């Protein structure tokens, strides 16, 4: 099973108009065009962004995951070849990073057995790639052998998972991984990342922390809307 991931969807558009378009037109067109192939169509509204997250490429808008049983189902559905009603301001302002990953994480670095309680969970959702000029092999070696181990020393980090982008994705994507870091709340994120971060070793390449190219957002544990099951009120 695979996930077609969108981060920062509609983040540069006027929120009331963009949300109305998303609920009234786009989501319904997606369900009509590719609904028979979809297993899930879940959307999360991004939480307000802390100023300190800017250096991690934090953006707002919506984070959306469309789940398909297989790459062949994704190709057969032909989602990228349909004609959709354009959003206010046009598509150039609407889209953020897009990629495709396996639905099951490639690695459970921390918290595999975590069963969230009734209290909210903050998910720091990140799409990453290694800098230009760094080979995938060198990037992965540093990521798995050094970077991940140091991140897991964050105080209050509850869960850390990573999805490696498909080796032969059905759409062109510059990204290498999608990863999630879970915290109890935004205060816990701030303590782990801003106030008392662990020491991070510089990689072999010359790039300031966080050492990789990244776009990130903050969402909850459960989706705000499941467009295959819910009938949200159009704002």
Report how far the terminal alpha carbons are from each other. 33 Å
How many discrete structural domains? 1
Helical content class: 10-25%
Beta-strand content bin:
25-35%
Strand order of the largest sheet: 4-1-3-2-10
Report the biggest beta sheet as strand number plus sense, adding barrel if it closes.
Answer: 5 strands, antiparallel
Helix segment tally: 4
- What is the count of β-strands? 10
Shape category: globular
Low-confidence runs of at least 5 consecutive residues: none
| Assembly category | single chain
SS-derived structural category = alpha+beta
Order of helices and strands: EHEEHEEEHEEHEE
Average residue pLDDT: 95
Radius of gyration: 18 Å
Keywords:
single chain; 235 residues; alpha+beta; five-stranded antiparallel β-sheet; 4 helices; 23% helix; globular
Question: What is this entry, summarized?
Answer:
This protein is an alpha+beta fold and 235 residues long. It is 23% helix and 26% strand. It has a 5-stranded antiparallel sheet with strand order 4-1-3-2-10. A 5-stranded antiparallel sheet has the order 5-7-8-6-9.
